[in-house]
Design brief:
It is built from 18 helices and 18 strands. It is an alpha/beta fold and 494 residues long. Strands 5-4-3-6-18 form a five-stranded parallel sheet, sandwiched between helices. The protein is globular and about 70 Å long.
Length: 494
């Protein structure tokens, strides 16, 4: 490291943001750029720690630890400290196809496993990554680089989310002709319609990368659902190989009394239609408005937070978010040691905005819904809830038990279900006759990605289940490597 005492000399400085009450007036990204001098100072906090955990992605206690795409974090931290931005960009792109996406929406498990985090606030790894890639775009260092040779092999990638894009990018670099099929009207998958615009701008950020990929030779075919608009048999016959990156898109439901009432929607129905309206500059036929309504969001996580942030921008009357798990502690518990991901209380952007508007964090912990109340005309008018306590059952598994006397009635004209996803949708899997795991994911081993049908591969959430964007990119790069090996007999892809 260029400054071996940087972590002693300097405190962590996070980037500034537009104030919550100002940013909820629009759909713009709200993180503000940091001066280069400050970024160099933050880069100097990266320690000469000997055995860094930040760049070695793994799973500990079921949670991501370190960077799943194996970003060379200590190297580009030091390069930023020394003002060598172009070299930092080269090191960043060596392992990560899309740092502008991860630098915005990744939860940064690298920071949770930063060695400095054992005793002090970690290095601002995510912000430095974001700053490197943005400087690269601003300076014109990123431009289309089509392959110099073509193999003549054709690969179809089904799904244009982060896994599909990473696979397509890598295979195109190897010289194959790549066609990406997307059932939505725009490419990008989760990046376009699963993440709100204030977290990841579609026109300026997602589109500019897609433009580069297209200029490098990748073909995107939108409004085409494989298995419906294009038969699976045709796809397999027309291409030398097929890669499935369809995601985990079957939402978990809540089958309690009143579930069929109007005004109850899955979170992604709400978020997708909203982003479509932002991009089209007008609401579509499936648009769901939270304006003037009491909103109840059932479920936490990033999707729940995005529903909060979207609802306050609509101008909701009130907002409550139900979380069945206990409120996390302010600091790590002994049962959650470093380098595990720190399960601590955080006020994410959506909750911060709701608190600024309504005076408190909208989340209610250890709480579950018991029924939805009818207004007499088939519309939801309230959510009935009860608090729970977690106890072990006869098999030793923790089970939520209702607490007598803790029942509440929360007014609601809009209920959003954000309880996670159960696996990939079935029609295409069934059409191809692919083997599945007990959790209904496509059966394909990690680092191999081969399905039960020769020449057909699977990667990302449809293979591993609901996960992080960095795992999707990890798997997209991995499946490209194995697909290239299948096509050519050998591979030089990392």
């Amino acid at each position: 490291m260029g400054n071996p005492t940087g972590f002693i000399d300097h405190l962590r400085e996070a980037p500034s943001e537009t104030s919550p009450k100002d940013r909820i007036r629009n759909w713009n990204e709200f993180h503000l750029p940091m001066p280069e001098e400050n970024l160099q100072t933050q880069g100097s906090r990266c320690m000469d720690c000997g055995t860094p955990f930040c760049h070695t992605g793994s799973l500990l206690s079921g949670m991501a630890t370190g960077c799943p795409v194996n970003n060379l974090i200590p190297e580009w931290n030091d390069l930023v400290y020394r003002g060598l931005w172009r070299e930092a960009l080269d090191r960043l792109h060596k392992t990560n196809n899309f740092p502008e996406f991860t630098g915005r929406v990744c939860p940064a498990p690298c920071e949770g496993s930063c060695v400095l985090a054992i005793t002090s606030p970690p290095v601002t790894i995510k912000n430095i990554e974001y700053s490197i890639i943005e400087k690269g775009w601003q300076e014109g260092w990123i431009s289309p680089q089509p392959p110099t040779k073509r193999t003549g092999k054709k690969v179809a990638v089904v799904g244009s989310g982060p896994a599909g894009l990473a696979a397509a990018d890598q295979l195109n670099k190897a010289g194959h002709w790549v066609t990406v099929y997307e059932r939505a009207d725009r490419p990008g998958g989760l990046l376009t319609y699963g993440i709100p615009n204030m977290k990841l701008d579609k026109n300026d950020i997602v589109r500019r990368r897609l433009d580069v990929l297209e200029a490098e030779g990748i073909t995107f075919v939108c409004n085409t659902e494989v298995g419906k608009d294009l038969s699976a048999e045709t796809l397999v016959n027309d291409f030398d190989s097929v890669i499935l990156c369809t995601g985990s898109t079957r939402p978990r439901d809540l089958p309690i009394k009143g579930r069929d009432l109007k005004g109850i929607h899955f979170a992604m129905e709400f978020l997708t239609a909203n982003t479509q309206a932002v991009l089209d500059k007008k609401p579509g036929k499936n648009y769901i408005s939270a304006a003037g309504k009491d909103v109840v969001i059932i479920g936490g996580g990033d999707t729940g937070t995005d529903c909060v942030g979207t609802s306050v921008r609509h101008g909701c009357k009130s907002i409550n978010q139900l979380e069945i798990m206990p409120k996390p502690p302010e600091v790590r518990s002994p049962a959650n040691p470093w380098p595990e991901w720190p399960k601590i209380y955080r006020l994410d952007y959506g909750q911060e905005e709701a608190k600024a508007l309504f005076g408190e964090d909208p989340r209610g912990y250890v709480t579950t819904a018991t029924k939805f109340e009818d207004d007499g005309n088939g519309n939801v008018t309230a959510v009935h809830t009860v608090e729970v306590q977690w106890e072990r059952d006869e098999n030793g598994r923790f089970t939520p038990i209702h607490v007598p006397g803790s029942e509440k009635r929360i007014p609601a004209q809009l209920v959003l279900l954000a309880m996670g996803f159960l696996g990939p949708e079935q029609p295409l899997i069934d059409a191809l006759g692919l083997e599945q795991t007990e959790r209904s994911n496509v059966k394909a081993e990690h680092e191999e990605y081969t399905t039960s049908l020769p020449g057909v591969f699977a990667a990302g959430d449809c293979r591993r289940g609901q996960s992080l964007i960095v795992w999707a990119i990890n798997e997209g790069r991995g499946v490209a490597r194995e697909c290239d090996r299948y096509l050519m007999g050998t591979t030089e892809l990392p």
